[in-house]
Amino acid sequence: MRAWAALGLAALVASGCAAIPAESQPEALPQQQRGQQTEAVPEPAPGLDPLSVVREFVEASAEPASDYAAARAYLSQRARKEWQPDQSVAVIEDEFSTVFAAADGSRAPATSSPDSEPGERRDERGNGDETRTGSPGDDAGAEQAPPATPAQETGSATGPSPTVPDGAASDGATASKAPDEQIVTVRGGHVGRLAADSSFIPADDAVEQNVRLRKENGEWRIVDPPQSVLVTMSDFDETYFRVPVYFFAPESNVLVPDLRYVVASPQSGLPARVVDLLLAGPSDGLTGAVRNPLGENASLETNVTTTRDGALAVPLTGVADRSGHDKELIAAQVVRSLQTVTTSRVRLLSNGSALVQGHRDWRPGELPSYQAAATPSSDLPGLMVADGRVLSLGNGQPIPGPAGSRRNVRSAAQSLGGDQLAVVERARQGVRLRVGPYGEQGQAVDLDASSMTRPTWVPATSRSEQSREVWTVVGGDRVVQVVTDAEGRWVTQSVNSSEINPIGNIDALRLSRDGTRAAMVIGGKVVVAAVVRDDDSRASVALRAPRVLQGDELDDAVALDWTGQDALAVATQSESSPVVRVPLDGLRIDQFNSSNLIAPMRGITAAPGRPTVVADATGLWTASDLGDVWRPHDQRGSSAVPFYPG
Known about the structure:
Layout: H1 4-16, E1 27-28, H2 50-60, H3 65-72, H4 77-82, E2 89-100, E3 153-154, H5 168-174, E4 181-194, E5 200-202, E6 206-216, E7 219-224, E8 229-232, H6 233-239, E9 240-248, E10 255-263, H7 270-280, E11 299-300, E12 305-306, E13 312-317, H8 324-338, E14 346-350, E15 353-354, E16 361-362, E17 383-386, E18 389-392, H9 402-405, E19 409-414, E20 420-427, E21 430-437, E22 443-444, E23 456-457, E24 469-474, E25 478-484, E26 490-494, E27 506-511, E28 517-522, E29 525-533, E30 541-549, E31 557-562, E32 567-572, E33 579-583, E34 590-591, E35 603-605, E36 612-615, E37 620-623, E38 631-632, E39 641-643
Parallel strand pairs: 2-8, 13-14
Antiparallel strand pairs: 1-12, 2-3, 2-4, 4-5, 4-6, 6-7, 9-10, 11-13, 12-13, 14-15, 14-16, 17-18, 17-39, 19-20, 20-21, 21-22, 23-24, 24-25, 25-26, 27-28, 28-29, 29-30, 31-32, 32-33, 33-34, 35-36, 36-37, 37-38
């Protein structure tokens, strides 16, 4: 759906070698900026009507060079000097409209009726594109009087609203009826916003932004520009490049990606911009869920540079007193964060010397495998629950012990190491949770409930250790962590889910296999939150910063799982899109092939480097990629629900 990321990366790789001078002094790379202005910005075309001025202003806002110089060209002389947009960028759908506001500040009705009103949900994902009621040039050259009767409109859209500047509403109410002042409303679908920390935050409410214009030297110019910059989705794709910036899980040496977006041009400045993000620490949505070996005092001693021998030099300061182990973790952070924007060797320096003694230059392949502890072992084929028993997903045989012989299992989860099993089983009054070694009778946990979600394991701190924590949701609204006490017994503790409860009851919950995030199905919506542990008491846990992913299109989810650390596979009730993939920032939604599947789906499992397995009305199906036709799984039980370790 969004090919820009792949194309951008290909362009970067293709140009990487050409960007390295054969003979030159070290060259400083541009730091984090809004871009560079390479030539004068022309004035807008003469004779533009107010609607076209506002539309072209939005389109010009996609270019952040020289503090949005291209967009400032559409402002009055005074507004050009005074406009100070905030650091966030509101991303709207490509189909947006500009419409005259009435004299009292309300929106005047359009002269034509679009096929779908703003905020109306499309019938099926990927279909029903909204009809535009105009184009940027429909009213070009015509000077419109402020509308007392229905006015003209260009475009159409749906979506959420960025902050409206103080006084915007009253501006419309007091706007003069003279033909040299008008108010235009921008209406569109809000995709989300790029926050000040360069992370993308999804949204799905409607944009309705008033913009006031006046005649200046015979031309319409904006005197009241929006406080937040507005850009369309396509322009955002072209202007910004997605990069994962890496931190570590709080209790293990597992690298955790933190998705950010940086200005893609100039390409030579991308490494410096990525280093700036890394030094600034985790995004707001991940703060408290990860640890940062760089710490708060790390900074650049000088600029990031390309050296004479072609290395990318990152001269750090403020980290010299770190332990040798922490310096190796810092090296992993920097090198992995830079691998999407450079093919050069990364020269890591601390106060002028090699950061890690005896290892000055780094390539990604020289790093240890920091994801191993968050990846299921290849010798664990996965399991499934069918007819009340836990069976092997590999050969269909019952597993050893009571879980494989009794027919009272509702759901189950295998630990990432494979040596532990959590089972939700039927009881006289509701359900009961058992946790214990794989193949043995697990301990019955003191947790009475009428319903529990399928359990999900927190990973162990290393491959050689056992997990000590498993989660479930009781009754839809109580998130519970089950941990081992000093005597080795499994006991319950509540997770603080106060930020989740207003969204609704939780129907499914899966922890990421690095333990830093939780993905949930809430009333058909897909919600992601950070798992934040108290520094003083690691047993005190909260779910923070919840975000609804693709809320306007994805409202019929039934199950989900992590395909990797930064994306989810989601099973739905939709006939046209029974299985989709969503990145954890919710910027887009990608459909799996729907061939052979019969809706609704009943379950799904996914893991890094493994095929996705989904359960539909007839049995289990498997696919390795989005475009693959679903193939019958070797195990075809019509009641089977599959799950990989985690």
